[in-house]
Amino acid sequence: MKFLWLVLVVAANSALADSDEALIEQLVHRPVVAAKKTEQRPSKTDPALALVGQSVRVRTVDHGLYVGTLAAVDASAIHLNIVTSGETLAYALPRSAIAALDAVGAP
Amino acid sequence: MMAYLLLRLVLLIVGIALIVRVWRASAPHAILSMIIPGYVIVPMVKYWKEPNHDIRWHVALLFICAMTAVWLQNKTVREYQAEQATSRQQLAAVPDESADEASDAVVDASAAPDDSDDGDPLHVEHPEKARAAQARTQIEIDSTSLLRGHGPLVRLKPTATPAPADVFASPRPAAVAPPPESSAPTRSADSVPEVPLTFARASAEAHYVRGRLARDSMGLILGLPDHFHALGSVDTRRIETSLGQPLDEREIAWVLHESVPLSDSAGWHVRVRWLKDGWVAATAIPDVEHLLRVAQQGGAGSPRLVGSGGDLLGYAVAPSFTSGVADWVEERLPDGAAASVLDCHAVRLGRTGVLEFSIVGAPAGSQALCDASVRLLARRAAVDHGAEYSSAVAADAVRAPYSLAQLITQRQ
Predict the structure, then answer these.
(1) A residues 37..56 contacting B (CB < 8 A)
(2) What's this model's pTM, rounded to 2 decimal places?
(3) Is it the case that residue B263 has pLDDT exceeding 80?
(4) Which residues contact B207 (CB under 8 A, 6 or more apart)?
(5) Is B2 at the interface with chain A, CB within 8 A?
(6) Can you tell me the ipTM of this complex?
(7) Across the interface, do A64 and B333 touch by the CB < 8 Å criterion?
(8) Do A64 and B312 count as a contact with CB atoms less than 8 A apart?
């Protein structure tokens, strides 16, 4: 019982600590891990395939946002054409980073 | 110093003994005594007459030791300040070149003339002499490893294939150019035969600050997290000068993580800038998608925030605004670059201006570290002598010529 209380106190202190500070320390000292590249064919039932050619909004797992025309889809990434001031840029976003993909105009 | 450490040790031991005694009587009281300052009075009174759980002598000893520790601490600080004052007087006696060193040392803020003075000295608390960095004469840039532990998240290929270029917008160029004939201030009085100011020398001679960095004449305080230290504007300008970069009049400091040396080719730092433009309206921020579309239109005068330039691809972290602090991460393709980079921004709004924290040119995929760093610093900073930002403008306040949304989109 006493041990449980002690664990609770330690957990409470950890929770009160600044989460950003803890995150920074974790990320700064994280060892470099080479990303594995895997070339796979997209699944035939991939819902993203239906959006190819449309203007889409992509939300990422890091609360990011990208808007562009969905040019192509494969198993590891989606490919956007992003129009900026004066030019169109091809941009690939890994599938693992995507939280949501929907057509612009959809709620 | 030893006495102080010994006292702290005694405090720790007595504190543990106190908690143990209270714990035997009541675990909740013991826990509350640990986490609520002053709560120890409750079990002390409650168990006053219980010989097995009485803690009155523990509390008395704690009180005496604590008072003595505070007294010792104050005494040490006073001695340190006196020592600093003496060194300032010695520096003041040396004219010309050493003037900048004096201004970079711990000085009283009242000596600062005004905000517009470029040489406005920093009032530094808990300064730490820099651990002289191992000077490097050749510095190479590897922008893909700017922030450790992160590989590129995305691959970018522009429609028009540009020539590869160094996209790192930090002060370290791909190869350090021969040092210019610099008119930068020299730090040492004994450097009478003018020695060219190189990046290696400027970074090795930089003075790091820990704990807190204040610029009293501007009403700014940077609270530095445990593993961060900062360089004041005198040092940052020397480094920028050594690299032949134009001086940024609004830059007041760089903040670095202690594990990332300034001379490290994979290093990164947070640029801190004070935009004394007045009160910024932050009440009407449109939705993020609208902000992105507006920002991607680009080309509306010179940007107010530091950045990599080029084209905005999207937000690696979408803008958010809470308690006077806004933060976001832009993914950009700099002009002529083959790979995208991240510009991480956090701004703390004040009544008289905006305090900006930016990491420029971080590699794609490092948004979590990048954003957390600038956001943490912005949250711990204080502007206008600690006055809170208000969404309602004061009658006599000067209004900035832009809103928060316009600052984020850089369309003003």
Answers:
(1) none
(2) 0.61
(3) no
(4) B104, B105, B127, B128, B129, B130, B231, B232, B235
(5) no
(6) 0.79
(7) no
(8) no
